[in-house]
Amino acid sequence: MPGVSSDSARGALVPLSPESPAAAVYPLRHGLKSPISRLSISWSRGNSLRVSVFAAPSSDGSVNDGDGGKVVEVKLGGGDGEISEAHWRRIAYGSVSPFALLQSRKNAVFSLSKFSMNSSPYDGDWWDYIMEYSKDINALLVNQKSASVPVLDDPKSVITKGEEPTSLKAAWELLEMFYAEKPSHSWLPERLVDWLADYDSLFSGTHPTVHSKLVDFQKELVNLQVVEDDPKYWEVMSSALAVGWLNIVVKMLRLHGSYRLDQLSNRETENGLVEAVAVLISKMPRMRLEHEAGKLGECYKAKPDFVKAWEKWRGQINKLDSSAFWFQCAHQQTREGLRSMLQIMLGNANSLCSATYNWIELYISHFLYMRPLTVGLESMYSLAQKSIQLKPMASAHRLMGLIIGILGENTEVVLAECLKGFGPWMVAHAIELLTAGSDHAEMLLHEERQNLGGISIEELHRLVYAQVLSSFPLTWQIAPIYLISCMKHGMVLLQRLLSKQPVQDNQLLLKSIEICRLYELHSVTSNIMKIAGVHHWKHGRKGSGVFWLQQARDEYRLNRIALQLFDSVGKTISDESFKQWEGLIQLLGSDSKTAGGLEFLHKYRDFKKSLRQIHDGKATDSARQAVESLISLMKNPSTPQRFWLPLLYDSLKLLNWKERPLLNVSQTNLLLNKLQELSMARLRPDFIESELPPQALNSVRLALGTNLGRAILEE
Amino acid sequence: MAFAESQNPLRVHRIPQSRYIDAVRWLSPVSPSDRFAAIAYFDADTNSPSIEIAYVDPNPQSSSPTLTPQSSWTSPSRISSLKTAHSTPQPLLAAATFSGSLHILASDLINGGVMESEATVSELGFHSGPVSAVDLREGGTECVSVGEDGRVNLVSFVGDSSKLSYRRIFDANGLVGYTAVKWASPSEFATGGYGFGIQWWDQRTSGGPVLQFKGNWCQGKTSGIVHSIDIHPSRKHTCLAGGSSGTVFAWDRRAAQQPIVLSGAGTGEAPNSLLSESEVWEVQYDRYTRRSNISNISSTRILPVMICSEDGILAVIEQGKQFLKHNYYELDRTIAKVETYIKRSHC
Record's InterPro entries (chain A) (predicted)? Predict the structure, then answer.
């Protein structure tokens, strides 16, 4: 048999294609002792495969422990390492309302723009809506297990640990800054600087980074007596300076030994130089709106102001670089370290290149010290290409691919990177940002494509995401939100999703019905109810079955099960079991339309009740009522023929009423006719004989005859 | 009738959980500051159901309260119904499962909330299929269980036998299914089921319910299921019920077959008397806000009622008011009410 290795006792599964280069073998522990005879594999919930292993029956026919079979669930894929499944679900649930809100706003904006031809749909509040959406989603991506923040500021702690960053959040922020904050494109380089400061550590896993070097140095710092003697101190500071982490650099500079009171007098010049560099760093002009409080650097919003300050600042650096004080500085490492930092600030390409560890860091350093006025994606893209050439990498981090795609203004690449790196959730939600301001992207993503079965890329990705949601029992109920936003196939898939839900669990059933109600899927509702009704009926819960079929107004099935019910009525509806039936008959209610053929049961109950009251001794009035019930039962076409004789036989007492005849001539005639009809029907082969004494028919006929005579006389 | 937001809105805290919450109940507090809750979880990833006792820390410093698990008990099947009896410091829990078993658990809140299974009924024939509801008699030693199979069982647990004995009070053979149950007195209880039916039982009377309520529902109204029943100790003549289509009604046993509809469609009143259109999972008399003046409310009036529904509405309904108070619960009032809310946002 293909797929099962010869060593079947261990039950190893081998991929079917032998030419696959990395054929992985995963042993399954099924615990069966006897050899496997059959194997069945099917999809279970979510990413799980259900492998059913059947053991061969033992040859001598004896039953041993470990015989039979086992079902093993195999979970495929470990998911995203940095985000737990529970966190993913929280993200999935949390993103529902921002998504739905944006869709309804989009629809409103769109329908409004139809009326006024000349206004673009995307102005006014549009950017606010997009930004609100993006911020809401971003807030969900905050890592739950954030590290504790120390209360006391440790002078020797150069990097503070905030929340643990995630690639997902980093990716979303990239998309947000490039697509949602469109009007502020000139601030993009500075936004990227901030972004790298937050997320540089993410690259540490696969590449050397400034952050990882800082973390390493931080560990050594505790044991260092004289920091300025350690070449790493200068190296790390240059690197941090290159990527613009000014606060860290200044803090580290102040750890320099020349600041110590006992050395201040001997190293006055040296200390002066260190402090001068520190001051220059903290005065660095930045072309940006504003800084977080406490961040070093001076912000300029207008380009001319910035250029003026920039020139002045560089002049000061040049002046310091060429000053004579360097010769008076005795400490060689300090002298060289500080001067190489000045080179970085002056934008020396070689210094920047050697101070950074990967192309993104180099890229950021170029923005900071060489081309702070870079504007426009085109020039940003070419600068990125240049950085990659200078610092080529064997493997690219998923965020790097995304950045290249964004800078290259290639929507398809961005989508592909989102999907590859971050999965269907990301794509389904990122498309909203991609299409926000770009007509080109909107056309590309909204165009209906033949090769996709007539749907757009946007719809495709929403459908894919909805499919993922539907396959997990904890998230299927939010899939409808995404499905209804799909114009072409959404509704059909929603109907299928709802019809597929199991009906055994009442809560799940009611949830499905609730969703149907929200989207006005009445036919699906009644289908689900029918399935539930038949399911309950089959499992002996007759009352529940009847209820659901009644709710579904399923006359056909109600009539079918009525026939089955009558069988048991004929046998069991005695006085003792009457209480059991009472509840069901109450459930059927008096509304005959929803009761189907079961209407008979209702009348039968009334008839039995009045008969019983006669026995209790409440004579004539009850007897009259019983006769009325009997006549209406016999007149009613829904009364099954096989009940005619038992009904009449039960009524013998009424027919032979002593005081006076209870039935008039026409009523008696009606019953006689029915009796005649019954006699004819008995000749047919499919007639079902009731379990009555053989003389029953004759005694009824006799009673009716007698009654007819008495009635004629009375009239 | 109309709805109005409460003048002083109460705060709702969300405590996201990574598992399904099938049921949640407060345990009676050991001291005013120490509050515990019993939560029935279902972990869909590992297919494992359990009941946990959690310490609820109101956490005044932080923005939201926290749940600290104290102890856990692994259930053989998902919990379909969970009830508690308010004895301190060792409250009893009755948990019924979808596989048709019933478990009596005892928790010691003073010694870290350790939970022990006292006794179990799981034999074949106790219920066929899931137990749909149980109720523990307050302070007593009896528990009543009902199912859609039409069985009504009375479980007594006296002494320390680990096997419980049960008595079949009634078996409707599936012709009627029961979905809710509530004790009214040491011998009487009420059950609810399909078609908004309510049955009144007296365990001294055998052979079926003493009284049945079907109600003269308005024409054309779709029927529904009773999910929850409550009976106020001081007004045993009235059964309060909540169920499908946002329906909340009361049945006064003295007034035969006419339901007193507090909320729901087809009541014949203005359509805005509909609080919610989805399933009302729990109804309970509001035992917190108006404790002092219950005696002032006429015995024909329905006391204020708390409800929670599938669409996440937690509300207090008052009969005969110009408006219905419609507000969110404070978490520490009754976690049970927040149950569905958490369920909706379980992640």
Answer: Nucleoporin_Nup85
